[in-house]
Amino acid sequence: MSTLSIENISMRFDLPGGGHVQALKDVTLELQSGELLSVLGPSGCGKTTLLNILAGFLAPTEGRIMLDDHQVKGPDAERGMVFQQGALFEWMSVRDNVSFGPRMAGRSKADYTDSVNHLLEVVGLKDFKDKAVYELSGGMQQRVALARCLANDPDVILMDEPLGALDALTREKMQGLVLKLWKETGKTIILITHSVEEALLLGERLLVMAPRPGRIHKEYRLPFADEGVGKDLREVKKNPEFGQKREEILSMIWDMEEEIMGRTEETA
Amino acid sequence: MTLLLIYIAVFALSFFVVRKLLRGAMQRRDFTSLKTVTFGDESAVRPDRWASVISVVTIFLLWGAFTGSHWVPIHAPGPFVGDTQFTYTLEAPDGARDDATVYARVFKVGEAVEEPEIEPGDGFAKNDAITVGAWRSELLLMDKNDEAKRSEGAKIVAIDGQPAGPGDTVKVADGEVAITSKGSLNFSPAKGMQMEPIWLPAPEAVVARVGEIASQGYQNFTLWEHLYWSLFRVIVGFFFGALVGIPLGYAMGLSDWFRGWFDPIVEFMRPVPPLALIPLVIIWAGIGESGKIILLFLAALWIMTISARAGVSGVAISKVHAAYSLGASKWQLMRHVIMPNSLPEIFTGARVAMGVCWGTVVAAELVAAEKGAGMMIMVASRFQLTDIVIMGIILIGIIGYGIDILMRKAEKWLVPWKGRV
Fold it and tell me: Which domain of life is it from (chain A) (predicted)?
């Protein structure tokens, strides 16, 4: 199976007026096949940069990403991506959006129709497959994005705040769906989020990153994702251990934010 | 001036009439009708179709009323037609004065007319008879039959009893009389408020012209041939403009080198109005078809290039990333993401380009052409065939409007997601 290893990744942007920004410094991490990792951190901690490097949209200034035995050098169908706003193709129906990957790979219609139909059923859009995507609600659009990503059968799925733009109720439902898909497909998933609760619920492993320079601050192994599969996630949240972890991480992030504020005030 | 006041009056009056009488019956029962804040909410302002209908009808009524159309029951006062008279007082060199009457018969231009029969009258100033066309004026050498001549020192001292000398203008019963600097009379019958057909023909005359030119043609080509050729040039010019412009715009949106190479050219050519190229195109390609099509090609080219370039830069980067992550190649990204995503921009550009091309072809035909809508009205204006000119302008407007409607329909059909993402 596939192992994703992040080896000493550093990312430095030079600023036009001289000086530079150290977006990431010496990030090292190894992810086994089928692991679900959520990444949390205050803004500016480089989590989106890390995801873009993993997807192959950016090349790191130092270090490398290895997926099994080969190095990641650019975007590829082996690493699927789910964006905050679906990034769906409005000129295609729901079905054509989902079958985009297989079609681009040149697979025959007979070959992919069954799996596309199955995926649409799993995400609950069986009756909407001929609709235009702009006719769907935000939550349904994210379901299309998930199905589209899975239709390609990638080794790793990268999610950049996939539920960030949804309302609270839809978000909860979608969290359940993500867990279900993770368990059913056994994919390696890296999920970036702003929400501590979401990171705890969906992260089998949870990475808290610190800013300036962006680096790994602390890593947790959590039981909640496994517990939550197929269950009402509100029950999981009632677990006292869940509340305790949430407080711990929240205050950790608060401290980081305050430190940043303090530093900015000093320089100002 | 009067016309403007009448127009404003009709505007205001119909507003109140429609508001008071029809509002209750016309009440729409949809969501927008429940909005209480409408002043300032652009989405709550919907065109009042009554106003549109009344607006168009008003223009035709005013047109008919001020041209004496048979189709319109009410008319603005027309020019004076019929018999009228005025007197002048001639002073002989010895100081003696005598009155004479001028009998004027005002006729419609184009109709047969005879001079009124008159008595010479007594005294040394004799009565005169003249005929004048409506809207025209007539010079009267009144002393031809008088016993005292201007050459002998006689002069006019009054018109209709009002003292007047050379250079003066006096109002008389149905018009006005001017005394020229040499002392003769110039009679202009009252013009009324209607327009003379040579300025603005009545609507029925224009419609009659449409029938005549549609069947018999004008300047060796029928009306449909003139319009066909104009449209043909626009479509061919636009087609080639789009054929070259869209790929060029894509290339500029996708490649540094293309962007750098063509940026100065496109940015320089864009503000040059196509009309300014007409002289150069005539020098290079003459006034035949190729010249027109080159001109329209150039008119459409830059607009299509810029809109295609804007279409490429309008692609959300997340869509491009998504497509690559799903395994699309560069060509597949082009075909399945960039091209469809740029369609809305390209359609907007195409609508603008079609409008510009239609305007340019008419202008180019005005300058020089053997056939075409613009040529038709230009030649007609040289012969003061105002009805053909008006007809041509109306048809050019209708076709331009029709093109835009077709483009919008096509856009709705091909780009249903526009404005909904």
Answer: Bacteria
Q: Where are the beta strands (DSSP E) in chain A?
A: 4-14, 20-31, 36-40, 62-67, 70-71, 79-82, 156-160, 188-192, 205-210, 215-221
Which structural domain range is residue B178 located in? 82-189
ipTM (interface pTM): 0.89
Distance CA B374, CA B231 (A): 11
A87–B319 CB contact, under 8 Å: yes
Torsion sign across C-alpha atoms B189, B193, B196, B199: positive
Residue B304 in contact with residue B245, Cβ under 8 Å? yes
Q: What is the per-residue pLDDT across A59-107, written as a single tens digit (0 to 9) for each?
A: 888 888 888 888 888 888 888 899 888 788 989 989 899 999 889 888 8
CA B38 to each of CA B17, B22, B25, B33: distance values in angstroms, whole numbers, following the listed order? 21, 19, 20, 9
- Of the candidates B316, B327, B416, the beta carbon closest to that of A77 is on B327
Which amino acid belongs to residue B394?
A: I
Distance CA B76, CA B59 (A): 14
Q: Which residues of A touch B318 (CB under 8 A)?
A: 83, 85, 87
Residue A106 phi/psi, 5-degree rounding, is: 80, 20
pLDDT for residue A249 is more than 60: yes
CATH of the domain at B370: 1.10.3720.10
> For chain B, how many structural domains are there in total?
3
B179 plus B253 within the same structural domain: no
Q: Could you read off the pLDDT of B211-257 as tens digits, one per residue?
A: 888 888 888 888 888 999 999 999 999 999 999 999 999 999 999 99
Does the pTM surpass 0.90? The reply is: no
CA neighbor of B23 nearest in space, from B32, B31, B33, B38: B33
Domain C-terminal end among B189, B224, B239:
B189
CB contact under 8 A, B327 and A90: no
CA distances (Å), origin B243, targets B20, B134, B215, B249, B400: 54, 57, 37, 11, 22
Tokens describing residue B18: 């429609």
- Chain B, residues 291-330, CB within 8 A of chain A, namely 316, 318-319, 321-329
Is there a contact between A134 and B322 if contact means CB atoms under 8 Å apart?
Answer: no
Do B57 and B88 lie in a common domain?
no
Nearest to A76 among B327, B341, B343 (CB): B327
Asked if residue B360 and residue B245 are part of one domain, the reply reads: yes
Cα separation, B76 vs B63, whole angstroms: 10
Residue in B with minimal Cα distance to A156: B325
Q: What is the edge-to-edge ordering of all strands in the sheet holding B175-179? A: B138-140, B185-189, B175-179, B169-172
